[in-house]
Structures are given as C-alpha cells and as structure tokens.
Amino acid sequence: MNNSFLGLPSLTLTRAKQGEKSQNQPKLFCIVHDLPPLKSPIAHRANKILGEFQKSCQVHALTATNNAYLSEEVNIHYAKDWYPQTLITWLRKLRLDKILGLLIWPDPEIFWFLPALFKGYQVIKQQKPDAIFVMMMPYSAGLLGVTLKFLTGLPLVFSLDDSLSCTDMHATSASWLHHHLEHWLENFYVKQADAIVYVSQFNLDVVKNRQPEARKSKFHLIRCGADPLDFATPINSKNDHSSFEIIYTGGMNGWYDFYHLPQEKTLLTKLYQAWLEWGYYHRVKIDYRSSSPVFVGQAIKKAICENPQLQSKIKLSVYGNSFPEFVVNRVLENQNIADVVTVSGSLPHFQAIQLARQADLLLITLPNRPDGTPGGRISCKTYEYLMTDRPILAAVPYGENWNYLQDKPGVWLVEPTDIEAMKKIITNLATAKFSGSPLRFDRSHLEDQLSYKVLVKDYLQIFNSVCLTSIFAN
Description:
The protein is built from 17 helices and 15 strands. It is α/β, with parallel strands linked by helices and 474 residues long. Residues 6-19 have low confidence and may be disordered.
C-alpha cells in the first residue's frame, strides 16, 4: 500500500512539477453518483471536494453521470445505470408508484449497483488505489463501497450529505419494515466503514449514540462549505434605492400543500391522498408548507399594508425552482402573493451566487416541525450566504440550522411560519435601505472554516488515519 497518506508533507501536499502527478502521490477511488453537468447540490459539492483532492492525490471517480466533467486531472470512469425506465414508466402510468416505493430499496439508484461494481472492481485492480471514498446520496452507493471493500481489502470512508436517521429529510418510511431497514442500513455502514463523515452535528450524535463504544471513534463532522473564489469576482452593486429585493436560491417543496384551496378538496381527492399515505411509517410530523414563498410573501404584503410608502418596493425573487410553472403560478395566485413574488428556474451555480451577493436580504426557509422537536437538517445555502456581507433571514425550525446560525453576525432567526416576526424584520431592513443606510456585515473571519480547501484538509487527515490503521492491521 502507498504510504503517502500517512501525513508526509512532501507527498500529500506537494504537486508534481509541470502539472504531472507524482507516482508517489496517493490514489483515491471515489464513488460519486452525481457529477457536473448535473446541478444537484451533491454534484456541486462533489465537484468542489474532488477538485481539492486532486491537488494532493491521484483521483479516480466512478459515476453514473454521462458526460461528467471535473478537473482535467481527475480520471472519470462512467458506469451506465441499469434502471428499467420503460417498465417503471409503465407501472407509474398505472398509478402503482406506491408499490414501486415498497419494492425498490433503499433508492432507485440501486439499479446502478451491478454495472458500477463490475466497473469499479476493474478500475481498482488496474489503478491500485489506497482508499475508497463514497459520497452519499444515493444511499445504495454505500452498498457498492462495502462490496468493493470486501473484494479488495481497501480502507473505506463514507461521507453522508443527509443521514438516513434525519427526520427532517426522512420524516416517513414506506412501511414499518422499511423504517427499521433504514436504521439497520445506517448502522451497517458505520460497522463496515473505517471512518464516516456527517455534515450535521445533530445527526452525527443521533447515530453515534446508538453505536457500541468501539465504533464511536469512526465518526467525524465535516460540514458543507463554500469556495472563496466564487465570491472573489468584483460585482456591480446595485445603487437602486427604489426597491428592496429578498433573494432565495435553491429548490422548495411545499408547493402542492397550497395548490388546492380548502373548498376544492373533493372526497375523491381526499381518498386518493389517503391511499398514497396508507401504510407509511411516520417518524415525525413535518409541515412542508413553510418550504415555499407563501409565509414570507404574506409577511411582505403585511409590511406593505402597514407601511403604504413601501408599496411596489419590496419583492421576493426565488431562483432554482423545479416544479411545473402551472403549479407555481396557481399557488402564487390563490395565495394572493403574485405581485410580490417571482419564481425562476435553475441557474448556473456561480450565477446564483452572484445574485445572492447583490441581494438586500437573503432568505433561508425550511419545513417546520410542529411538535417543536429539534431537527438535524442544515441547508447547504447557509454556508454560501455567510460568505456574503448581506443580512440573512433564516425561517428555520429549532435544531441544527438554528443552532449553527444563532451566533453569526447579521442573521435574524424566526420560526418558519411566524409572519409577524418576518414582517418586522423586513420592514426594519427595508426602512434602513431607503434611508440610505443599508445594513452590511463583516463575516470575513468565517472564511477559513467555510472554505473547501480547509474542509479537504480534514478529509486528508481521515485518509491518513485509516490508511495507517490498515497498514498495521495487514
């Protein structure tokens, strides 16, 4: 096994001359289902992390993304997913989605397992990497990592974007059996991995506390981050004192909760909804309505109503919508917020960041937890927003996101459906801008802890540790 993961600076932190990879550099085999040109958060994060890895390692990435691209120095290996598209489409036309949810486990990407296993084993035998690194989701990618570890004996490191135990992301399971299978699977991954990384301290603690003492040292917290280079480009700040723009970047999933007005819900609609939910195991009640612009839009309307001088001056712009336009338009109309909210589709990530840097107020809003219990979800946009100097309105439930933001400068925390609190914050910030004194905040001291360059150093320390352990074990 190559010893260059063991903390030797001349090997792990020095790039070969003239851009050529030294033969003494460590090799890392990475399983990453999603890569650019996909625009998912996982693909973006993988792009940043693997881009930093390649400065210290020879990186071989196995992916299901056709025509994937990263740095030219990253070797990409493509394995086509065997997903039975025709069959699944036919079953969905028969309204059998519920049956599919029961049978396909742990996720639809399980059909990638076999082709990826054949390809991954071939690459490992040819390249002889020092360790296997798996980025999840999908969760089925972990099964691939475990199998390849069994076949090759290589150390295995998992990085979870969302924990299977996170009740914010997984409030329900397809059945009671699936609930227990998901907990078993996460415990199985902990048992098989040499190290496992979480992005949320809350979720890490939940899983760690149910493990035997011998496995607790495997857990590491490495949060998501941001790339300072994305924020280094000079921007032409808008000197427009005639409007106040609130910006939200990313998807929302609470649209359908407002699609039908209460009087439009027929008995047939209610029966069909009951059928869809029948048999599900509910871990916690989540109010997805707040993952929408509705409550913030109503707060804007209320601010304008109480302060007529703000009429037509405040607007909310949402970038990154993936829902059908007719659904979005119907919700904006039946909630009477179409005049203060505009919704646009996805943008290149860099462009979305530049828009955020020019906002008068940045918005984070997450699904609410009506029972008041804390949750483990933390929005990835949190870190990028903190790289700007703009005020942040975080309409989030108590838990990881709230705890992380509560001591950060220029952040206003409110519960996700608290229209009155949102109204006061928006009114005060808009008034400050229109008086010629827009609020700005120096968060430069956070750059080091948010930068992917720093986060990757933590990953390299983990690889050093697991490779050292593996050598002694052998």
